[in-house]
Amino acid sequence: MKVVVCVKQVPDTKGGVKFKPDGTLDRAAMLTIMNPDDKAGLEAAIRIKEEHGAEVTVITMGLPKADEMFREAFAMGADKAILVTDRVLGGADTWATSSTIAGALRNLDYDLVITGRQAIDGDTAQVGPQVAEKLNLPQVTYAEQVEQVKPSSLVVRRRLERGVERVECPLPAVITVNATAAEVRPQNARLVMKYKHAMIASEIAAAPDTLSARLASERDYLKIVELTSADIVCDEQQLGLSGSPTKVTTVRFVASPGSTSKSLTPLAASITSVICLITSALRPSEKLGTHSIILFCIAL
Questions:
Q1: Are 271 and 143 contacting, i.e. CB atoms less than 8 angstroms apart?
Q2: How far apart are CA 22 and CA 91, in angstroms?
Q3: Phi and psi at residue 158, in whole multiples of 5°?
Q4: Does domain 2-238 have CATH number 3.40.50.620?
Q5: Which of 43, 107, 257, 273 has an alpha carbon within 20 to 30 A of 191's alpha carbon?
């Protein structure tokens, strides 16, 4: 069985968030981590590998520094890694991202594609389902556990708002995994040492005399496959910022002035004073009608 896990480097908010002038994230200038939901998806894939035998490949669209995330994936138990990187792919929204990933997957042999439910930098939960649609594959979202692996299907437990649902899905398929799925294993020390010199081709070419580059050149398992937009099966007009229907017009940081509280008495004069206080704190574009605020106060 061959499983492909889609992973993403997302900003580590501990290091701050930075934007480019066009309103897109300046990912090269930020600290990054593996998206938690994607890490849960990788854990699900590795469990399938351990229980049923499988080859696990991780794939991402991003910058060359994604090799850090790949080394973490290797240390968890992944077998191969693919980086799709190209300047024309920058600034992609969910539509362009899913077009890129689906285009790369068309050149791969797989039985199952796993993604995280959503990424913490966008919270859209759109890329996984969009990839399934563009590849014309069945999909199971909000997966919590792959309970059975059959020759031509999977039994998946889904965690929904009002309970649990079990569904059987034919293969090949796409499933999106919740971060609340099985606990993610720590990195294996032996695998950390084995893959600590894993590199992409462009890094090897840029510094061929370094120890890591020499080792990666000699050992195939240390080579991270690197693809560009020319290597994927996709309409170029659907890629990157130019192929993204979502446009960021402005980015504004809103600083909270801090929380305050005020006790109300049954007197109408007190309620009126609070309404005036609320309306005076709102910007003109956020003004609510007096009746709306009165109803809000009554609801409280």
A1: no
A2: 9
A3: -105, 140
A4: yes
A5: 107
